[in-house]
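Appendix B. Chain record.
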Amino acid sequence: MERWVTRGMKVTLEPVGQPDRLDKPLFAINWFDTRSRLIYDLYNALASRSLFKVGGKVLFKGRVIETLSGRALDARQILLIVNYPSGERFLDLLSGTFFQIVSALRILAVRRFSFGLNERIDGPQLLGSATTPFARGPAWAIHHYASDQDIRENLEALREFASSSGLELWFVSQKIGTVTSETGAGSRQPMDSVTDKVVLFKAATAQQLRDGLLSPRGQQLVNTQPNSYVGLLDRVL
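Structure tokens predicted for this chain:
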């Protein structure tokens, strides 16, 4: 799936696995650090109009307040999850002139930007709609890791762990697409993406998340995954 979003740049959505996966609702995992929160907040305010036009919606935004385990290489400050109806609608967003202009603010505001297109596998709101915004909750944690194994094979273990630890399993996803830009001169630039598998846990308190994820069972679950990172989040949206 590709499109010339400007006269000099083509963007390609490259599927991971089955090509038709990009024709269904996608969950963009934005995982990054900020240089300037003020500029980034301005970018969000301006870009929201373009996002709304293509049927996109922000489902979750949180700031990392504590790293429980993992390498600094895989850590970031901000997690933003955005839903798009399909890959084509995401390309519609990138093709918009206004969005392209305000994106200059994002480039100024962020660094170590990781981006991937994921499919949502599990979570209580899938019983209603896969794209319903997440319910409010006082304490959240992210676990992301890289693996060639389909996350469905680990789903029962995740559910069992969450249930036995008093945690709620709110979002389970895996990467199904990457983004590559190409200039007219033929230079290809893939977007960095370190969030292959992404899991969000919710609990009444941050301490419940610490106790569960730092327990022997929790450590066994997360430390057996390659490039595993676990951190607590303060939800801001």
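Further analysis of this model is presented in Appendix C.
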